[in-house]
Write a structure and sequence with these properties.
Blueprint: E1 4-9, E2 12-17, H1 22-28, E3 52-55, E4 62-63, E5 74-76, H2 80-96, H3 103-112, E6 136-138, H4 148-153, E7 163-166, E8 173-176, H5 192-196, E9 202-204, H6 205-211, H7 216-225, H8 228-235
Parallel strand pairs: 1-5
Antiparallel strand pairs: 1-2, 3-4, 3-5, 6-9, 7-8
Helix pairs in contact: 2-3
Bound molecules: iron/sulfur cluster and FE2/S2 (inorganic) cluster.
């Protein structure tokens, strides 16, 4: 028989199996908690903290996607403190990154009243768009460092380990080893990283080219030019 733990979420009591996260328990009750770095297919990393909730008696807010329910917990998924924390996280993300193509962030900003101009004097990401393969482009100006792509590329999905987080502080960024172009790494172009990216920092090359008005002939030329197999043939 499965061992159960009981807690109270927003005034409602719920019993869940040991090991259930606060996020899973809340969803069982139909409570909506925002998430960004969390993805059903990936290990919870607790990276972005947008899901943080208030637990009575706890010193800090707890990330609902990573913290497990304990017996007797009294949890508030919305409170003044929770809402303020989510609002500031959104404002800080938008101060550095281009979140204009991140639908979840835009929806949460609306819900929590985030003011994207609040930290307008903050430093912004200024990376060149990386277009080094025929399948997808990388625009790290849109990256919020949620880490999903690294997890999907690594031990959560593909085991290719082509991506990692490099640098420190504001200069932390997603990179390949030695910043090599993707065709020169262990990338197998599975597309899992593109599929889990919440901000469109990773985009299929085809849609990216078309969005810029590139016509089909040119799309075909560009794709041919940068195809890794062709480059490999050239090098021989
Ligand atoms: S590229 Fe996308 S998935 Fe990867 S860390 Fe940045 S926002 Fe997350
Ligand atoms: S969604 Fe929970 S920490 Fe990011």
């Amino acid at each position: 028989m499965t061992d159960l733990v009981t807690c109270v979420i927003d005034g409602q009591s719920v019993a869940v199996p040991v090991g259930t996260t606060i996020l899973e328990a809340a969803r069982q009750l139909g409570r909506d908690i925002p998430t960004l770095c969390h993805h059903e297919a990936l290990t919870a990393s607790g990276q972005c903290r947008i899901c943080s909730v208030e637990v009575e008696g706890a010193r800090t807010l707890l990330p609902a996607c990573a913290a497990e329910v304990r017996t007797g917990m009294v949890i508030h998924t919305r409170s003044e403190r929770v809402d303020r924390s989510r609002k500031v996280i959104l404002e800080m993300l938008a101060s550095a990154a281009d979140v204009s193509e991140a639908p979840d962030i835009l929806a949460y900003a609306e819900e929590y009243g985030a003011d994207f101009s609040r930290f307008a004097d903050g430093e912004r990401l200024t990376y060149p768009i990386l277009d080094d393969n025929p399948f997808y482009i990388r625009d790290y100006n849109k990256c919020i460092l949620c880490g999903r792509c690294v997890q999907a590329c690594g031990s959560d999905m593909q085991f290719a380990f082509a991506l990692t987080i490099a640098g420190r502080g504001f200069h932390s960024h997603i990179a390949t080893f030695f910043e090599k172009p993707l065709p020169e790494t262990s990338c197998v172009f599975c597309g899992n990283c593109v599929g889990v990216c919440p901000t469109n920092a990773l985009q299929p090359k085809l849609s990216w080219l078309l969005a810029q008005g590139t016509d089909w002939n040119e799309v075909r030329e560009q794709t041919k030019k940068s195809h890794p197999a062709k480059n490999m043939r050239k090098r021989r």
